[in-house]
Each structure stands twice: as structure tokens, then as C-alpha cells.
Amino acid sequence: MPGSETDLDRKPKWQPRFPGSGRLKGKVAIVTGGDSGIGRATAVLFAREGAKVAIAYLEESEDAQITAKAIKKEGSEVLLHESDLGCPDSCKLLVDRVIDKWGRLDVLVNNAGEQHPDEDITDITVEQLQRTFQTNIFSMFYLTQAARPHLKKGAAIVNCTSVTMYKGAGLLLDYSATKGAITAFTRSLSEQLVGDGIRVNGVAPGPIWTPLNPMGGQPPEKMDDFGEDTPMGRPGEPNEVAPAFLFLACEDSSYMSGQVLHPNGGIIVNG
Known about the structure:
CATH class: Alpha Beta
Largest sheet: 7 strands, parallel
Number of helices: 8
Low-confidence stretches: none
Structural class: alpha/beta
Mean pLDDT: 92
Order of helices and strands: EHEHEHEHEHHEHHE
Strand order of the largest sheet: 3-2-1-4-5-6-7
Strand content: 5-15%
Oligomer: single chain
Shape: globular
CATH topology: Rossmann fold
Helix content: 25-40%
Distance between the termini: 29 Å
């Protein structure tokens, strides 16, 4: 998990759709899960807007190289970090590498995640439960802890939660639980950091066409009509989600903290 984007027959649309306007000029950002999907779309969009970008990924090196090439094509700089962010030492090493290379950190995007479908709660193994929480929420604590000493006034943290936190998902019980934790983490961390001028917000995507779902995140029989139950009748594309991350990372959202945006195809949720 989450699988390789290069192996998908139908490629997700991740390319930025509009010219940049310098909204992250001079900034340095970390995007976890930046090798593919929403992470790739966000990383490349940040580069178009002037940011230098470090992308962290588990093991999908070919995907990561494609992202790196796209970032360089935007005229920016990139740092690749292959590791398991469920390990605190890996998170500290990532931040240390960013500071050593660029001397600052302005934006942290906690996007990396994994999911495993199960029909019944008794099917969820101890190993799967612990691994899902380790990847999806523990990594956010570890990386934010490592980044905190370097985040100054004006910095932004954007966490990826999910529509499943708001509407539930019977097949994704442990995954949905981690996304509930991420939303609570986002709101509580905002309360802790807002006085220091650091904003913390979240994005809760609906069904998005990324490697996560077709490569084991959903049962194969669910993929033929994936996303068609949304009001818009289709799954979203990564480049339809990345602008939400950009908005929350830049000064356009300077009066927002502790909030969640919902690019989910028109699904009505509360919160």
C-alpha cells in the first residue's frame, strides 16, 4: 500500500490546471505521500506556486521520480525521502534533511495514509489495526513533533482526513477511525498553535482516483462504479483536491484555523 500510480491503466489527473501566482514563493514545504495521487498533485502545485518541496514516500521510487521531475519542470527544487513515517526517527531525519538543505520549514502537509477493506470488525487483525493507526495518525504526531521547533509565525499545517470520518464507511472501519482521530488532532493542534501564528487545517476528500483504492484499498468488485454514488456521479481527480491544500497552506486562508474543506463530489456533511 498505497500502490504504484505507474501501474494504473487509467492514470489520475494530477497536473496543475492553472498558472501559478507566487502564493508560496520563498516557502519550503513537506508533503507526505507525495509520490502519487493527492500528494503528487499537491507537491507539484506547490512548486508551481513557488515552494521548494520535500516529498516523503514509503517505497514507490518510480512514482517519486516522476513527481520530482515534475517539480523541477516547474522551476523549483525537490528533496526525496523514502522511509516509513510510522517511525519517529524517520520523521526526525526527514525534517533534519529539509533544514540542512533549505534552512527553513513553512508548510507541513500530512497526507500519507493506507486503508484495508474488511467486511466485519472481527476480520481486522491486530497487525492491520496497529499498522493503519501507525501510518495514518501516529505519523502525523511524529512528524509534527519533529517539525514544531522549525515552524515560525505564518507557518501552516494541513492534514488529510476523509469523508469517511463524517459519513462512515462500513468496509473501512479502522481507516475511518483514524480519520476521525485526524480531524480531532487538527482541531486540537489548531487550538495549541494558533496563538503562535501557526494555522492548522484539514482537507476531507471524497472518493478520489488514486492508487490507494484500486490497489487494495477497496474490494475489486467495488471499483467498477467507484465514486458514482456521489452527487456528481464520478470520482474526483487529485488535481481537483490539491487546490484545497494550496488554499489552506497560503495566506489566502489567513483567517482560517481548525477548519476542514470538503472536495467530495457534492456529498453534504456536517463539520
